[in-house]
Amino acid sequence: QVQLVESGGGLVQPGGSLRLSCAASRSIFGLDSMGWHRQAPGKQRELVARITLGGTTTYDDSVKGRFTISRDNAKNTVYLQMNSLKPEDTAVYYCNAVRINIDYWGKGTLVTVSS
Predict the structure, then answer these.
(1) Helix (H) / strand (E) containing 21
(2) Residue 47 class from Cβ within 10 Å (0-12 exposed, 13-18 middle, 19+ buried)?
(3) Which of 107, 113, 111 is nearest to 3 (CA)?
(4) Helices (H), ranges, the chain
(5) pLDDT in the model for residue 26
(6) Rounded mean pLDDT of 64-76?
(7) DSSP class of residue 83?
(8) Residue 20 — φ and ψ, nearest 5°?
């Protein structure tokens, strides 16, 4: 079992920045990958960014060059640095971890981009 707790969401103006954090209940060394997904109202949940055990990162085209995923193994935490935020980035952001083909999810943190 892996418990994931997100933090760092909130209200930000267009062009602003936020950093999301996801704290895992166990060492992230044992996880195949960790990532961030988001779900906007009326839309399906979509992958935003992922980082594998080996450090390979993947980004959705809509966030490339603006978002950066990283991890701190000592703190069992994964981050999502979000810059140049746009209104269309508004969504609930969920942390995800994969271990032996099993998905684990956090409860989500709301990001609202609005003036």
Answers:
(1) strand 18-24
(2) middle
(3) 107
(4) none
(5) 86
(6) 95
(7) -
(8) -90, 145
